[in-house]
Write a structure and sequence with these properties.
Length: 203
């Protein structure tokens, strides 16, 4: 069995970090539950220059390494790997953030999971001269049975897999979105995600 897992806000609490960062940088009080859009520029009402500055600050190695783990994630992922499942972390982070992202995974118990940087959102402009190590044409050759994702903007990357079961990690920015097919299920924690995959017979 092959499982796709998104990084930010599935394995770690990225948006909670941004809620603190935007206050530090710009003096704005935007609580986590008020982040209504996956597009943080829209959620925080930032002009282009301030948004770019915020994203550069958030992608510094010391920032990426400070993100808190989403409770229960490591235990479930390692149980899957122990069963022989292949777990691939597919992130929209730029490839220039690969090393600290890999280090975070290793430090938080995800050292056996693969990590791939995919240009999901075309956001490479805020970190110059970076490249992605997984091009879309290569990604579309990959097969997954399950996916864990929080971003409605990423649902487009699942169209080539009509049998895929997508577990949408509940976050404020996806609570009003519609799901493309019946294969999408809202999950409120990693225990729920685990139970969904447990329904599948071991490979």
């Amino acid at each position: 069995m092959n499982i796709y897992v998104d990084f930010d806000d599935c394995l770690c609490e990225t948006a909670r970090y941004f809620s603190v960062l935007v206050k530090k940088l710009f003096g704005m009080d935007v609580a986590y539950e008020q982040i209504r859009y996956f597009n943080l520029q829209k959620s925080f009402s930032l002009p282009d220059e301030e948004y770019e500055y915020m994203m550069i600050e958030a992608h510094k190695p010391e920032a990426l390494l400070s993100f808190a783990e989403t409770p229960g994630a490591a235990g479930v992922v390692n149980e899957w790997i122990d069963r022989g499942y292949e777990v691939s972390v597919i992130t929209g982070r730029p490839y220039s953030s690969y090393e600290p992202s890999r280090a975070w995974l290793d430090q938080h118990g995800f050292e056996r999971a693969g990590l791939f940087c995919l240009n999901k959102y075309g956001r490479d402009t805020f970190i110059k001269n970076s490249e992605f190590n997984l091009e879309p044409e290569d990604y579309y050759k990959m097969h997954f049975d399950y996916a864990v994702e929080d971003s409605p903007d990423a649902f487009q990357f699942f169209r080539h897999l009509p049998e895929l079961k997508v577990m949408v990690f509940d976050r404020p920015w996806n609570r009003e979105c519609g799901f493309p097919t019946d294969g999408y299920t809202r999950c409120y924690d990693w225990e729920t995600i685990k139970r969904m995959v447990d329904q599948e017979k071991p490979v």
